[in-house]
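Researcher: I'm preparing a figure for a lab meeting and need a structural model of a single chain. I don't have an experimental structure, so a prediction will have to do for now. The sequence is pasted below. Please return the structure as C-alpha cells so I can convert it later.
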Amino acid sequence: MLTNDFDLAAAGSRLREERERLCLTQALFAGKVGVNRMTQVNYESGKRSPDVVYLAAAYGAGVDVGYVITGKRSAAPDFYRMSTVFLLASIERRTGFAEDVLSFVIEAVADAAAAEWMAGAREMPENQGEGEDIAVWLPISDLNSLVAALDENARLLRDIFAVVHAALAFNPSLRLAGGKRLAAVLMLFRAFRTSGEVDREVVENALKLAAP
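Model: Understood. Here is the structure written out cell by cell.
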C-alpha cells in the first residue's frame, strides 16, 4: 500500500491518464489487471491506494507505473504499443471486429510464443525481419477456431478472455501457458455460444481442470 502522505489524487489522475493513453475503458482495463470496475474508479479518483499486485498487473498491461507513482516518466514512450493501439482501432473501424478483442488475441499468441521460448522449446529466429509462420507457436486448428469465434461473436470472446485473465490473476495457484489458456478460452466459447453470456463459476472450474 502507498503511504498516507502520498498524493493519491495526483497519482490517480496519472493512472487515468495512462489508461486513456492505452485507449482502454475503465471496465476493460479493470478486467486486464484483475479488479472490478469500481475498484478502478476508486484508484483513479484517489479514494483508495493500489497495492503491489495491482501495480504489477498494470505494468504488465503497459502502464508506466513509475510515472503514476512519481510523476516522472521512467522511460521513453512505448511507441510500439502505441502504434499497435492505433492500428487495432483502425482495423475495428474498417472490419467491425472489436479492437479490445483483437488486442487480447495478440496477447494470447504472444503468451504462447513466450512460453515456448522460456521453456527452451523454441529459439528466436536470427533474422526477425523474416519472421515465422504463426502456426509455429499455436496449432493451426486453434488459430482457425480463434478466427471463427472472432467472426461469430467478438464481444463474447472478449468477455471470456477478460474473465479468464481475472480468474488467473486472483488464483496464483492456477498456472496456464499461453497455448493452454487459449485452448481453454476456445472450449469456453463453445460452451457459452448459445447463451452469449459468461458464467464465472464455469470458467473457474474449467481452469482448475486445465491447470497442471
